[in-house]
Amino acid sequence: MLSKEVKEKLISIVTTENFADSKTERLVYSYDATPNFQSMPDAVVSPRNTMEVAEILKVCNEYKVPIVPRGSGTNLCAGTCPTEGGIVLLFKHMHNILEIDEENLTITVQPGVITLDLIQAVEAKGLFYPPDPSSMKISTIGGNINENSGGLRGLKYGVTRDYVIALEVVLPNGDIVRTGGKLAKDVAGYDLTRLFVGSEGTLCVITEATLKLIPMPETRKTMLVHYQDLNAAAKSVSKIIANKIIPTTLEFLDQPTLKVVEDFAQIGLPTNVEAVLLIEQDGPLEVVERDISKMAEVCKSEQAVSIQIAATEAEADALRTARRAALSAVARLKPTTILEDATVPRSEIANMVKAINEITEKYQLTICTFGHAGDGNLHPTCATDARNHEEMERVEKAFAEIFEKAIELGGTITGEHGVGAMKAPYLEWKLKKEGIAAMRGIKLAFDPNNIMNPGKVFAKDSKKRVVVTR
Predict the structure, then answer these.
(1) Which H or E run includes 279?
(2) Are 285 and 408 in contact (CB under 8 A)?
(3) Which end of the chain has the smaller Cβ count within 10 Å, N or C?
């Protein structure tokens, strides 16, 4: 627990109303969306502005109190579980859109802004913020930046990092630093903006962000392509890209996923096929129609058995919503749902899907596979029960083999979920010892007292999912 002295200093900064350390209040912030991880913080602190954040960090740095910045807790890598106690930093007061600059096509926000609120605010002005994580209805921009979140539109438009052009951050010693700006070009010094994006709260606390916007696409079309052969569906993904077509969205769902999503969403998804591709293109009408036609031809050449083009925007939105609901749908199968992500080069999607199916069969598990196939990012999702220790052993072995296969195919252990505590044991597989050492050097330079989200990213000895209680 926090010492009386630290508690009094924190309360003097934020007031009693914004400091909580009762067991009930701490329990709420002891877990995130990652299954089987839990650890109690010592207190929950809600700053009202950047200066209060700076003062909080000065106190924590002096007394070596761990700090975990937290958005909505939707991350899936235990990134916001306070595994070493300390304080959870909430941004419920710092949730404002500060400016929409239509001349420079930017939006400046505080970290607590909900992603969908931002998207709707800029779309009302005919502008477009492409990153669209499935959790966007509840996830915050601060969380998106810390995890470098992706989404369905990532294939064409990229991920959160591609739209962050300026940050205001507070370093562990309390220094306030501004990086970047409303600029098309800026090569003055190290690119700290990109370093902080995706750093998972291990280097700084983000207190403000300026994001790039683009004009709203003129039109878009959506189609659903059915396959009776998983390999054919995966090959279609590679072939579409090889034909120099970059769709907005190119999503893959296998039959187990289709069944649970249709049972959940009831929108008429096919459940008698082995897989589907959900494909969307946006832009000028003539380009969209040309690309949709070409992609349909490619899919037919790869044994597609049916192609369904959404007749209305409502129908298209229902398909997108169903895809975003995949995790919720799978979660209904068993008490524990483990959603992972592994990314491979797009040309290796077919081999990765085949490997996941073989590993699933080897360990006799229920794994639904879906994901952003167009950018090589698949989400093998296991429905299991954490109370069945023997099955959990098989789950761990299966995912370890999936990560190993992804790296073997030239991929990585995570494309968008982050490392956190869950993937930390596997990070060295990807970066090797030298890469980990370089990262540790950066961490030490910014955070010599290791107060920023300690226990994340850098591996512990164990590769087990554990429940940590305090």
Answers:
(1) strand 275-283
(2) no
(3) N
CA gap 130, 240 in Å, rounded: 21
- Is 165 in contact with 254 (CB distance < 8 Å)? no
Using CA atoms, how far residue 35 sits from 78, 117, 339, in Å, is 8, 27, 9
Question: How far is 161 from 169, CA to CA, in rounded Å?
Answer: 15
The label of the residue with tokens 């807790």 reads 73
What tokens appear for 91 in the block? 């941004």
**Largest separation between any pair of C-alpha atoms in the chain:** 71
Give 3-state DSSP helix, strand, coil % of the chain, rounded to 5: 40, 20, 40
Tokens read off for 43: 């207190």
Phi, psi of 28 (to 5 degrees): -60, -35
Burial of 408 (0-12, 13-18, 19+ CB in 10 A): middle
Calculate the CA 357 to chain-centre distance. 24
Q: Is 386 exposed, middle or buried (0-12, 13-18, 19+ CB in 10 A)?
A: middle
Please tell me whether the overall predicted TM-score, pTM, comes out greater than 0.85 for this model: yes
Alpha helices in 243-366 (DSSP H): 255-265, 285-301, 313-324, 326-330, 349-362
Distant-in-sequence, close-in-space partners of 428: CB < 8 Å, separation ≥ 6: 435, 436, 459
Q: Give me 83's structure tokens.
A: 């595994």
Find out whether 215 and 109 touch, Cβ atoms under 8 Å: no
| pLDDT digit string, tens, across residues 279-329 | 999 999 999 999 999 999 999 999 999 999 999 999 999 888 888 888 888
Radius of gyration for the alpha carbons in the chain, expressed in angstroms and rounded: 22
Grouping H, G, I as helix, E, B as strand and the rest as coil, residue 79 is: coil
Pairing of the two strands 67-69 and 87-89: parallel
Tens digit of each residue's pLDDT (9 = 90 or more) over 236-285 = 998 999 999 999 999 999 999 999 999 988 888 999 999 999 999 999 99
Angle between helices 230-242 and 285-301 (to 10 degrees): 140
Percent of the chain with pLDDT over 70: 98
- How far is the first Cα of the chain from the last one, in angstroms, to the nearest whole number? 9
Number of other CB atoms surrounding residue 470 within 10 Å? 14
Burial of 188 (0-12, 13-18, 19+ CB in 10 A): exposed
- Tell me the one-letter amino acid at 373: A
Close Cβ partners of 315 (under 8 Å, ≥ 6 residues apart)? 222
Check pLDDT > 90 for residue 347.
no
Q: How many CB atoms lie within 10 A of CB 187?
A: 7
Cα angle: 195, vertex 54, 89; to 5 degrees = 80
In contact, 45 and 19? CB cutoff 8 Å: yes
The SS3 assignment for 421 reads coil
> In the predicted model, what is the mean pLDDT of residues 349-369?
93
